[in-house]
Design goal:
7-stranded parallel beta sheet; about 230 residues; two-stranded parallel sheet
Amino acid sequence: MKSVNAGRMKVIDRIAQEKFGIPGVILMENAGIRAADIILAQPALKKHKNAVIFCGPGNNGGDGYVVARHLINNKVRVKIFVLVEKRKIKGDALINYLILKKMQASITNLTETTKESFLKKAAAALKKTNVVIDAIFGIGLQRDVEGIFARLIHMINASNAFVVSLDTPSGLCSTTGKVRKDCIRAHTTVTFAVAKKGFFKREGPKHVGRLVVADISIPRQLLTAYSSE
């Protein structure tokens, strides 16, 4: 299977936007809708149509907002927990966050309450759902997972829910396969465009679970030029 490290994936993404003229918001939309289709096909979601999505501070969180919208449009009851101050949501992620706000989606922002209250609400939601979508950290994570992020990852891993990670399990280095102190143990990882090298190294396989590579419309010749077996 062809794969790339995190650095090359960022180059692919940049060239897709700058050379081929594909706006980032379209790539995000394609990623979210592909992931939503895969999630909608999960038996756990078909039985009880409810899901909880945890969205982090970057574009991975933005992918989560797109997934949330498409699940809601397919009559899934979705609770969205946002682990970043609203004023820090930027760019394409902000576009999709604001769409959800206008849809009056169920959103709990970290800054609307204390951290302990946020975690209590998240724990209550985890007890009532069969499916959790991890959109906390993407391939750009460069630091150890600590604080409320680590506590939340422990809660998700301890839940009985079916866990789907978007692009990469939060806390996994997608280049080396090293866990950055704490990491989601996904049942399925929907990665975008091409697999990441860290999925097959060190601790990667036990955190990725079933790997699905989703096409998000990046030109094939670009992927071929920058990925390797």
